[in-house]
Amino acid sequence: MSSAVEQIEGLTAQEYKYGFVTDIDQETLPPGLTEDTVRFISAKKEEPEWLLDWRLKAFRHWQGMTEPTWPNVSYPKIDYQSISYYAAPKSADDKPKSLDEVDPELLATYEKLGIPLEERAVLAGVAVDAVFDSVSVATTFREKLADAGVIFMSISEAVREHPELVRKYLGSVVPPSDNFFAALNSAVFSDGSFVFIPKGVTCPMELSTYFRINAMNTGQFERTLIVAEDDSYVSYLEGCTAPMRDQNQLHAAVVELVALENARIKYSTVQNWYPGDKDGNGGIYNFVTKRGACRGKRSKISWTQVETGSAITWKYPSCILIGDGSVGEFYSVAVTNNHQQADTGTKMIHIGKDTTSTIVSKGISAGVSNNSYRGLVKIMPKAEGARNFSQCDSMLMGDRCGAHTFPYLEVRNKTAQVEHEATTSKIGEDQIFYLNQRGIETEDAVSMIVNGFCKEVFRELPMEFAVEAQKLLGVSLEGSVG
Amino acid sequence: MLQIRNLHVSIDGQKILRGIDLDVQPGTVHAVMGPNGSGKSTLASVLAGRDGYEIEQGSVTYNGQDLLDMDPEIRAREGVFLAFQYPVEVPGVTTMYFMREAVNAVRKHRGEEELSAGEFLKLAREKIGPLGMEADMLKRAINEGFSGGEKKRSEIFQMAMLEPRLAVLDETDSGLDIDALKIVADGVNSLRSAERSFVVITHYQRLLNYIVPDYVHVLSEGRIELSGDKDLALELESRGYGWINDDVVPQAVAGV
Ligand SMILES: Nc1ncnc2c1ncn2[C@@H]1O[C@H](COP(=O)(O)OP(=O)(O)OP(=O)(O)O)[C@@H](O)[C@H]1O
Ligand SMILES: [Mg+2]
């Protein structure tokens, strides 16, 4: 009777296929975090004084903060002194000027990951900024983008080449003191991407960053900043993987988006960090702060995320809707299997008039995992005519996993309209059998049913990403669904 | 093509089928009638390979192979089709995508080329038209929001697409209006051929006016109590099932 469940569990047992370790010369800072660590990182990057001060301020603030305990996840206490806060491929000292100069081992790694760095990138029209552990190793298509006036480079470079822009916007959406992990990130962030789309420009291609944690015992603290000026548009993709390690690794990123008048930013993530083994050993702690500010009128920020990896996920990509008529969207698929835990969702803060937000969250839990949606919709007093629609659906595979929904609603303007729908369903043996009876095998049936469940989110993803996301879903749930 | 021998099946320790014998020859249509709860759907499910049934005794041979030993998807690819009494909804998966995967799974199994999107669409249009459905239906999620009648017609559409060798129709006529009933019957009749066999489960003799069976069987309390030709259905219509267990009717050898 329970063969569906057994199959689900069998599928779950599938191996993480990005778990290889790249053997390259690394320069790694010994574990520990003091002011000197912060100074070291800043010096290593030849940062200006203001940035060092900014980091130190964040660090001092962080020292007085405590880790949040409200998420519906549990993990042993993290010893922040046992983590190394900087690791870089050695060859980064004389940074490659073109792809030919990039360590071939590194390129091979990216190839294994299926990252379209070279020809494939051209075909797919993707420009890639690849962050390996702490530093950005190669940025492609820079020239073509430069012609359009788009700036796309690692944030360390941006600090050197466009200090005024970085200084103006860095921390303006997620202040260094925002939360424990954001403060930590502000103190020790190593690299990340910087994107600037000038007024009136539609970015000629999808921009993309792949993050990879390779070194052992290192934390990854990248920082992404995207600024879209008036009437501009950009679509940005982010993908992540990490090798399999028995120890947990910390990933505490900060992403800030700024959309000015009429600007549109579409930010898509496929997160596939190592989830740990089937007994819950190892895996990434993914504690991320992502927030976008719709500062201009009619601006729009759209977050789409497919979260399949990480041992623990704690992230709430949010929108602050300041400009009148601005739009915030959050489309999310979060899959947990085995011992994974996810507490994810969004915050939509309506400040301007006629602001609208849409939340579509699909949680899929298998194994003995725990999957929580946590979302806040806040309508401020001046947000006349604000509207929100939220839909949170959970799908359970087997009966040992958990799905939870924590919607928070604060409405301080009477003209606002807020709608919330939530469903919980079990993947049905009868659905699987129905598809089986038409000749479709169980694994495909499950992936079809799950993909159908996630459809509203997948259709928000750029095409290539949608395909990848569907595959990933199959892999993450392998052995989990009958 | 199909030989069921002394089939005993239970669910959770409760006996449902108590010794079914049935032979289905290629090209024949067998109607199976019988009171509610007599085990008709159970028999259909066991043939299709649904989980959760315990086969206590007996065998089922399909084209010389042990049917009970095959996974449900293999049975389907080998040509066993079940039109469900209660077709399930699968949100977000279009009928088009579903059927294309299904048709191609079957074709692959048979060593045939998979159909391209264009070829598939053409075939689907051909098959859906006569069933009185719009091709737009293909874009809707599987059975989602379908009316009862639409669900049944969709089952017949799927059957037409998959071209099975043995089709088991479980109360496909229930819930259909007269016009739809004729459409469905026409759909079935157009698929009748010398190689293809049907097991038609129904409560109503009326359907058998349109799909004229070669044999009629009465399933009662997990056994085929009586078999005959199409006139048996007429007799059942007028007399009900009550007399079957009372009268001592020599059990005909089911449909040879
Ligand atoms: N999953 C199950 N668990 C327990 N009992 C079941 C299950 N499925 C069927 N049964 C029982 O088996 C018996 C036969 O059911 P079945 O659905 O085969 O009858 P049927 O002849 O198709 O009836 P109907 O004409 O109402 O469709 C019934 O008593 C039913 O309650
Ligand atoms: Mg029935």
Question: Could you please describe the fold and organization of this structure?
Answer:
- The complex is a heterodimer of chains A (482) and B (256).
- Chain A has one domain (2-88, 152-477).
- Chain A is built from 13 helices and 23 strands.
- Chain A has helices at 3-12, 35-44, 49-63, 104-112, 119-124, 142-148, 155-161, 163-169, 180-188, 429-436, 442-453, 455-458, 463-477; strands at residues 26-28, 87-89, 126-132, 135-139, 151-154, 193-197, 206-212, 223-228, 233-241, 248-251, 254-259, 264-271, 283-294, 300-307, 312-315, 318-321, 327-336, 341-350, 356-365, 370-379, 387-396, 402-411, 417-426.
- In chain A, the strands form three sheets. In chain A, strands 5, 6, 8, 10, 11, 13, 15, 16, 18, 20 and 22 form an eleven-stranded mixed β-sheet that branches. A ten-stranded mixed β-sheet of chain A has the order 4-3-7-9-12-14-17-19-21-23. Chain A has a two-stranded antiparallel ribbon with strand order 1-2.
- In chain A, a hairpin with a 2-residue loop joins strand 3 (126-132) and strand 4 (135-139).
- In chain A, helix 10 (429-436) packs across helix 11 and helix 11 (442-453) packs across helix 13.
- The model of chain A is unreliable at 1-13, 91-97 and 116-126 (pLDDT under 50).
- Chain B is an alpha/beta fold and 256 residues long.
- Chain B has a single domain (2-254), classed as Rossmann fold (3-Layer(aba) Sandwich), CATH 3.40.50.300.
- Chain B is built from nine helices and twelve strands.
- At the A-B interface, helix 10 and helix 11 of A face helix 2, strand 7, helix 3 and strand 8 of B.
- Bound molecules: adenosine-5'-triphosphate (ATP) and magnesium ion.
- Magnesium ion binds next to helix 1 of chain B.
